[in-house]
Design a protein that fits this description.
Structural class: alpha+beta
Bound molecules: FE2/S2 (inorganic) cluster, fe (ii) ion
Largest sheet: 7 strands, antiparallel
Shape: globular
Order of helices and strands: HEEEEEEEEEEEHHEEEEEEEEEEHHH
């Protein structure tokens, strides 16, 4: 008689074990700096609303300075940015009944139709720290009382120093910066994991920029040692991971005979990728040697993120700027920001249904290609400054 054997259970859910905080961060990590708008999107005297990690934020520029305040009017809750009413340079004015909040402190300074109202001076909406650098408006999103305020540089990629011909740093002088941002219908984590996943190189295999430059792209990067990924942990500085493609940590897969495919392209173009909290990708020497790309994955709510993709290079002279503009219009924009990047957005949005509706965080079957994805989940779980809770009244399935 054969012994009764227990039916082997399917693998226990992956959720949990080593990166539980990451799995709980459907609305993003709080107490980090995030890009909100390009500077040119907020001209003098205007008002715009953004949503970051569930925080609805009104951005207002007055006398050149950018202010960020809660976009929910304390009176009856409308989004203040839904209509522009900029009466002077000192207030954020709600278009509905005229509550006027001080730009510096968010305190109710007057009510347009009730100038002696007892609420004046007693009601306030919260404010957010803002930094405008490198043509981008950054906001520190999270707890209002979070102290000390970390520097913006702690949430940006590191400055590259180990390359004899390094790509520039975003806060350098004399940069030409171009880029895009837009909304993708996927959770921010799927965006981040797509951005930093060396295993997804296959979706770029036949892209126009690869064909046009005859660039070699492997079919995959197979990690061969623990040295394939370097942890970046700078005191009071960036926390991230760097893929050591060129330091012997990876075997580059160039052919798969079973699948009947070979990589193509003759130009071996040196590129290196790294990724930083709260969700910023650095690609060195892309789209061209000496240029850099930063890509952010900014949580909007639990089902959308704002993708940012910028490219920048050093330009000291007007002639160099003109040439960079030419490259942007004729190459970066059509081939990188539009064609190349659309493949990434497509992939992220395709993953969303599985992870949101079909228990994907527990059902995914990660393979060796995903070593980096898992490393990122662990790093993010360890170094984040807090998990953003859903806004009141909103639940988060994943
Ligand atoms: S809702 Fe804003 S002033 Fe009434
Ligand atoms: Fe990609």
């Amino acid at each position: 008689m054969s012994p009764v054997r227990a039916v082997k259970q399917s693998k226990p859910p992956a959720a949990g074990r080593e990166y539980q905080p990451y799995l709980e961060a459907a609305w993003g990590f709080k107490n980090h700096w995030y890009p909100a708008l390009f500077s040119h999107e907020l001209p003098e005297g205007t008002l715009r609303g953004v949503t970051i990690a569930g925080h609805e934020i009104a951005l207002r520029r007055a006398k050149g300075k950018v202010y960020a305040l809660s976009d929910e009017c304390a009176h009856r809750g409308v989004r203040i940015s839904a209509r522009q009413m900029c009466l002077n340079d000192d207030h954020l004015t709600c278009w509905y009944h005229g509550f006027c909040y001080g730009l510096e402190d968010g305190v109710l300074k007057t009510v347009v139709g009730s100038p002696k109202d007892p609420l004046i001076g007693k009601v306030r909406i919260r404010t957010y720290p803002v930094e405008e650098r490198a043509t981008i408006i950054f906001i520190f999103v999270g707890d209002e009382d979070y102290q000390p305020l970390p520097p913006l540089t702690s949430d940006l990629p590191i400055r590259i120093t180990d390359d004899p011909n390094p790509t520039p740093y975003l806060l350098d002088d004399d940069l030409f910066i171009c880029g895009i941002h837009g909304t993708a219908k996927s959770n921010w984590r799927l965006g981040a994991e797509n951005g930093f996943d060396p295993g997804h190189v296959l979706i770029h295999w036949d892209n126009a920029i690869v064909a046009a430059t005859d660039s070699f792209i492997p079919l995959g990067f197979h990690p061969t040692s623990p040295d394939s990924i370097k942890v970046i942990d700078e005191p009071n500085g960036p926390k991230g991971l760097m893929n050591m493609y060129n330091a012997g940590g990876y075997e580059l897969i160039t052919e798969n005979q079973v699948a009947g495919i070979k990589s193509r392209g003759r130009n071996h173009h040196y590129v290196r990728t790294s990724f930083y909290l709260p969700g910023c990708l650095l690609v060195e020497h892309w789209p061209l040697t000496n240029w850099a790309v930063y890509g952010w994955f900014v949580p909007t709510d639990d089902q959308h993120h704002e993708y940012w993709d910028i490219a920048f290079g050093v330009c000291h002279t007007e002639e160099e700027r003109k040439e960079a503009q030419f490259k942007h219009e004729k190459m970066f924009k059509p081939l990188h920001f539009e064609d190349f990047y659309s493949n990434d957005i497509f992939a992220r949005e395709q993953m969303e249904r599985f992870y949101r509706e079909r228990d994907g965080w527990n059902r995914e079957q990660l393979c060796e290609l995903d070593t980096v994805v898992v490393a990122w989940r662990k790093l993010a779980s360890r170094f984040n400054r807090g998990i953003q809770a859903p806004p009141a009244g909103r639940n988060s399935p994943s």
